[in-house]
Design brief:
Blueprint (H helix, E strand, L loop, with lengths): L4 E5 L6 E5 L7 H16 L8 H14 L20 E3 L6 H4 L11 E3 L2 H9 L6 H10 L3
Antiparallel strand pairs: 1-2, 3-4
């Protein structure tokens, strides 16, 4: 999808900036801020089974339980614990649609990844991450 940009006044910061057609009347900074708040609200709700604190606890436990900390895709070593070093093979956008919540916390659905492989799998071309794509197809959820 091609994003059309027009120079207009942002409805949030009231500055003349390129406005994203998709969002309507927001500049890039204000749109990113809106998306961050939306994500934050979704994952900081600790009442649900997919809460941010419960996921972070899962990531830390997975890190502590598995000592061979290498990227599943490219094999590079991972030295320090960061949340992005753990990737769910099934994208989060499909969780509520296809999975019971308990399955999200199963180790067979998560792998270690470096930041570049994580980004490529989640936001880039999945065809470049052959191992993770193969594992996703093995799970056969859809």
């Amino acid at each position: 999808m091609q994003i059309k940009l027009k120079i207009k006044e942002c409805r949030n910061c009231h500055k003349e900036k390129p406005i994203y057609y998709v969002t309507g009347q927001l500049c890039q900074f204000c749109n990113n801020l809106r998306l961050y708040k939306k994500q934050k609200d979704r994952y900081l709700n600790d009442d649900g089974p997919l809460s941010y604190t419960r996921l972070k606890t899962l990531y830390k436990k997975y890190w502590d339980d598995n000592t061979d900390r290498r990227c599943y895709e490219c094999g590079c070593p991972l030295h320090n614990f960061k949340n992005w070093h753990i990737n769910h093979i099934i994208p989060k956008r499909l969780w509520k649609q296809y999975l019971p919540a308990d399955i999200v916390y199963d180790y067979k659905y998560i792998v270690y990844v470096c930041l570049s492989c994580h980004h490529e799998y989640d936001h880039g071309n999945k065809e470049n991450t052959h191992k993770m794509l193969e594992k996703f197809n093995e799970l056969n959820i859809v």
